[in-house]
Amino acid sequence: RSSFQYALFFFTNHHAIVGYHAQQTHIHHNEILGLTGQGILLSGYFDNSIVEYNSIALVDTRPNFEYGLYSHDGIRLNDYADGYSDGVRIRNNTIHLSGGLDPAYLPEWGGVNTNGKVLNGIMNGAIGQDLQITDNHIIVDIGDPEVIGSCYEIGGREPGNTVYRGNICETNNKGAVIG
Length: 179
Description:
Elements: E1 4-7, E2 15-20, E3 26-28, E4 31-34, E5 38-43, E6 50-52, E7 55-61, E8 71-78, E9 89-91, E10 94-99, E11 108-109, E12 112-113, E13 117-125, E14 131-134, E15 137-142, E16 147-154, E17 162-165, E18 168-171, E19 174-178
């Protein structure tokens, strides 16, 4: 809490703050600057956790050495089974995304050219009950047409269990990516 994190990583799952198998976690009042890293990850069991009043900037992010096509997320929620992300609150955070592609870091993977990147303000892969994402301010400013940028990526198996309310999404790209 109340810390500054500078995220400069070159591997996958490179987050400034990670809550892994951490129920009732309260992550708040942090400032995160990610140049090649990501913001906050809640993964595994994280029932009744709160992420609030954080300032996250992912600026000029680049693909890493492991994957050419992957997502960079301000806040990412991953659970892997029902009942592991109930009662979560993501609120009053400010997230600013910008960036572009760097062809030097884009390998071919399995013979497929993976030129691409996705930047998400909040990536919700959680399927818990009573998840609320409220009163966040997300800015997506992507100048590269090869990059997908979104305020929200909604990817849980049952995204109808999440309430999105009172959020501000300013974007020159996508508002939400669903699927």
